[in-house]
């Protein structure tokens, strides 16, 4: 009887181990991101900040505000500017990142919903989004953009690299210190 119980325990452990190992990078990344739902984090520019860029010297906050099946919305506040929301969509084992920009009255900006789709399932700690055709058509100079997000136990980063230029931008958020933040982005409806 002890041998049978021991054998059942081994099978259970092996099954759990295989399940954890068989999760793709996108599934693991998504799971990590979902754990942040309902929380806000203050960030700092760690690369690419410069005087007059609209970001340097401003309070930067990401707010994982809305998590639905297949969609996570993360407003990114820059000082008093509440115009930006990162929208991540999980479909067919790939993530898509779109940048939703709004005016103060909630109407869409003329430059909105640009971004890209990961070309593979990515890694548990990083997803990469090269500019898609919609972005190239909407913002020709951004056709060489590559965005990536990283998530580790202590840090989340949002990054931009414009291929063919020296343009790099990184904001790092400390996941160990959630902040109280009760604002909503422009145009937000519950």
Report on the architecture of this protein:
- This is Outer membrane lipoprotein-sorting protein.
- Residues 1-22 form the signal peptide.
- Keywords: Signal.
- The chain is an alpha+beta fold and 190 residues long.
- It has one domain: Lipocalin (Beta Barrel), CATH 2.40.128.
- It contains three helices and eleven strands; from the N terminus they run ααββββββββαβββ.
- The chain has helices at residues 2-22, 25-34, 133-138, and strands spanning 40-47, 60-63, 66-68, 71-78, 81-91, 94-101, 114-117, 126-130, 145-151, 155-162, 168-179.
- Strands 1, 2, 3, 4, 5, 6, 7, 8, 9, 10 and 11 form an eleven-stranded antiparallel β-sheet that branches.
- A hairpin with a 3-residue loop joins β9 (145-151) and β10.
- The longest helix has 21 residues, at 2-22.
- The protein starts with a helix and ends in an 11-residue tail after the last strand.
- Mean pLDDT is 90; it is low at 1-20.
Defining key terms:
eleven-stranded antiparallel beta sheet; 190 residues; single chain; 19% helix; Lipocalin; globular
Query: Number of helical segments?
Result: 3
Task: Summarize the amount of helix as a percent range.
Answer: 10-25%
Total strands: the figure is 11
Q: How many separate domains?
A: 1
| Overall geometry | globular
The N- to C-terminal Cα distance equals: 56 Å
CATH architecture, by name, is Beta Barrel
Main sheet?
Answer: 11 strands, antiparallel
What is the alpha-carbon Rg in Å?
19 Å
**What is the mean predicted local confidence, pLDDT?**
90
CATH topology label: Lipocalin
Poorly predicted parts: 1-20
Kindly name the structural category.
alpha+beta
CATH top level class name = Mainly Beta
Instruction: Write down the secondary-structure element order.
Output: HHEEEEEEEEHEEE
């Amino acid at each position: 009887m002890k041998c049978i119980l021991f054998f059942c325990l081994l099978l259970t452990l092996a099954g759990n181990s295989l399940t954890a190992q068989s999760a793709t990078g996108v599934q693991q990344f998504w799971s990590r991101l979902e754990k942040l739902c309902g929380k806000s984090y203050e960030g700092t520019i760690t690369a690419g900040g410069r005087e007059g860029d609209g970001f340097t010297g401003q309070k930067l906050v990401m707010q994982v505000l809305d998590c639905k099946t297949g969609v996570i919305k993360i407003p990114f506040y820059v000082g008093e500017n509440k115009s930006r929301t990162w929208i991540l969509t999980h479909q067919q084992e790939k993530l898509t990142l779109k940048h939703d920009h709004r005016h103060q009255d909630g109407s869409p900006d003329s430059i909105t919903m640009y971004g890209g789709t990961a070309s593979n399932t990515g890694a548990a700690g990083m997803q990469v989004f090269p500019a898609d055709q919609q972005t190239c058509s909407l913002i020709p100079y951004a056709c060489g953009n590559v965005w990536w997000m990283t998530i580790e136990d202590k840090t989340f980063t949002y990054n931009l690299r414009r291929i063919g230029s020296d343009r790099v931008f990184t904001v790092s958020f400390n996941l160990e210190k959630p902040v109280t933040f009760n604002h909503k982005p422009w145009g937000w409806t519950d």
